[in-house]
Amino acid sequence: MRPITLLTTGGTIEKRYVEQMGAMANTEPQIQRCLALLRLPGAKITVEELMNKDSLVMTPEDRELIATAAARSTSRGIPVVVTHGTDTMVQTGLVLADRLPDLRTPVLLTGAMTPFGIEGSDAIQNLTESLLAASLVAPGVYIVFHGEVFPIADVKKDTEQSRFVRVSQR
User: Fold this and answer.
1) What Pfam family is a match, any one (predicted)?
2) What's the pTM?
C-alpha cells in the first residue's frame, strides 16, 4: 500500500450549510465523508485534522503548523496532500516551499470553489486528482485544481474565472 498523509485545514472544501446561521461555515470536518466515496484500494491515507477554518483567517502560526506536519511526513518519504481554502492557498504553498526546501516527495495543496455536498461541487474531483498526483509528480510544492497541477511559484487564483491559472500565462 502506498502511504499518503492528508492534512486538513478547512476552507470551502470543508464548509457546510448551518441552518441556524443561514450560512456556510467551517464547523465539522467533511474530508472523511469525501474519502468514503472514493475507491482507493492501493492507498493508505492517514488524515490529520490540523484546523477547520476559512483561509482568510489563517495566521502565520497556522502556516507553521501546516509546515511542521508536512515535514514529519515528507522526511519519511510520504507524500502530503493539504486541503486548504482557496483565498490564501498560494500564500501557504509559498511558506511550505520556503520551509521545506529539500523535499523527497511532493506536497500538494487542493480545495474547492464550491463546498462538498453542494450540487456541482468540485471537492471530490480536486481531492481525487491530488491523491493521484501524489504518486505521479516530482518532489516539490504544487496546487492541484480542476485537472491541472501548478508549481507553487507559477500559480495564482483567478477570482473572475473561479480557478487557478499559471502566472507565466499572463
Assistant:
1) Asparaginase
2) 0.88
Domain positions in the chain are 2-169
d(CA 66, CA 95): 9
Question: Quick one: cell of 146?
Answer: 480542476
Average pLDDT over residues 61-73: 97
- pLDDT at position 41: 81
Active site amino acids: 12
Contact 100, 107 (CB under 8 A): yes
55 appears as a binding residue in the annotation: yes
Element (H, E) at 128: helix 123-133
Q: Which residues pair with 128 in a beta bridge?
A: none
**CA-to-CA distance for 150 and 36, rounded, in angstroms?**
27
State mean pLDDT over 16-26: 62
135 is in an annotated binding site: no
Top-level class of domain 2-169? alpha beta
CB 27 within 8 A of CB 116: no
CB neighbourhood size of 19 (10 A): 6
| 86 known ligand binder | yes
